[in-house]
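Justification of computing resources. Each target in the renewal requires a structure prediction run like the one illustrated here; the chain below, 665 residues long, is used simply to show the kind of job we budget for.
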Amino acid sequence: MSSEADVKFEIGHVLFIDIVGYSKLLIHEQTEQLQKLREIARATEQFRAAQAEGKLLRLPTGDGGALVFSDSPETPVACALEISKALKNYPNLRVRMGVHSGPVKEVTDLNEQANIAGAGINRAQRVMDCGDAGHILLSKRVADDLEQYGRWRPLLHDLGICEVKHGATLGVVNLYSDEFGNPETPKKFKAEEAAEKKLSVPILRKSIALLPFENLSEDKANAYFADGIQEEILTRLSRIGDLKVISRTSTQRFKNSLESIPDIAKQLGVATILEGSVRKAADQVRVHVQLIDAENDSHLWAERYDRKLIDIFAVESDIAAKIADALQARLTGAERRAISSQPTKNTEAYQLYLKARHQWRNFFAPGYEQVRKYFQRAIELDPSFAPAYVGLGSYHAFGAANAILPPVHWPAAETALQKALELDDTLADAYHLLAGVELYYKRNWPAAERAFLRGAELNPSSGEIRHHYGLCLVLFGRSEEGLAQIALAKQLDPFFPGLHLFAGRILFFLRDYDGAIAYFTTTLELQPTNAVAHEHFGDACERKGMLHEAITQWCASLTLGGQPEQAQFLEQAFAASGFYAAVRALAQRRLQHLNERSARGEYVPAWNYLTAYLRLGDKEQALVWLAKTVEERNWFAFETRVTPILDPLRNDQRFDQILAVLPTK
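Resulting structure tokens:
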């Protein structure tokens, strides 16, 4: 390895090992046990083969270490098996192991003292921490990979969910046989089971998750239609206050999953599961659904619909009504009207709407402009199609709120949302987006809060509304209320990466950096390629003085964000000149890039200039751009009040004067 800059961010297959009770040993005993553990690990076939091929990284820790393999998730598991078998000859050497696959990067070049960081390392350690001496624990991600092979399947024993630091959770699997591992349930799980029996509330009988519908159409391009039907049925069910409905963003992780229905239901915290399939050919549609009682994996109800495309709304309504009846949910008159609504009679407009919703999941990735075109064309075909106006409003509002689009998009967002509510004033998503218009554009917090509450009232199962509302509550100094909303959102949408990202950002604002890092780690477990999560992770590491880790996370963010040359520059500058010089050098390059974009007439948020000048140490220019950031109508104007990133400016009397224009209540 010639230099740190040559090592790229990648997925590593991590085996984390430590000696149980290490701190209670005498000094000479610690040395002897570490030496023996190193000898055993280095003697394994996987260690020697990976080292010979240059596919192994090592991270020593005080009481063990981590081995990072680059070829396959099978390798660290096979290595753990060899170590476990060898340890039977050394009963006084009590070791536990954890395996996980995730993003890693080597940040220094000190041979065996190399420092390896990343979500993959952190997650593997947390998996290991769930076990006792003798355990070989795997993350659910690794176990799912091994499940495909007959060699491993009999050795995998699901332990369920383990809660680690700051409320983060892990799916953990125990690996053992008669020859290796520890078949006992880890103490941590026994303690949690006892606590659950004592304190937990039983899963609500009137709770449901809709798994992604299978696309059985010959034309695989019709996947958007199957996804759309599932989401539309879910939306109708979410309008029923007497039901708990898990959000689509959490159920997506179980698409094509081999896990059993009871296991999926347990992870989602529901009593029932709806499975379905959709076949579309020309104007004919077949929808097959089955409602399953997760406790005993039995069918409660099943139905097959063969209809014309024009009748699809009647199918969606009938499915929602029969599910509500099967779960004995109480419906108000308004809820009955909501689940039986037919927002358009134009099938072409409806298909364009579903295509836009399907594309929306890519957010502002290349080609995203097609979302706006789909929604606009749907409106042209049916000017009374209220959900299409909500979709168009979401394009403009989301882009403007996050400074992806310039603030001139706000009026278009407001117009579309007002039109949607004129046509149908029961659309929860419209109120949610309107809350953004009221806060970020009009800066009217009371009006925004009313919109949040109305949206949550109309869709009690929306985790998205609650986590956005929780974040805004923190902006206005109501942290306990905000965290309570986040907790509710997690129940409704436990596996949504964006929710964990928001929660981590909230704790970052509250200066709880350990808690923030735990949430960012969970985000990256759910979505390893999330560039924003890596950036925020790096911000939290910097505040804790974990400078190597901060560089690692920022480089990952730059690489995943399409700027690998900037990542390489940051690595090289860090290796040559240290942390602060590297950060300043990157900020200088960034400032030059921002100026070039501005010169081409591109929109550049004032926040980008503010943070660049802050990194350069130019306080005067930072204050100039702080004023421009506060004037600009987007989320970053409000973030200035709470983010630790701006702490270097807070002692200047001009800081409070600049922020005085923002509403405080």
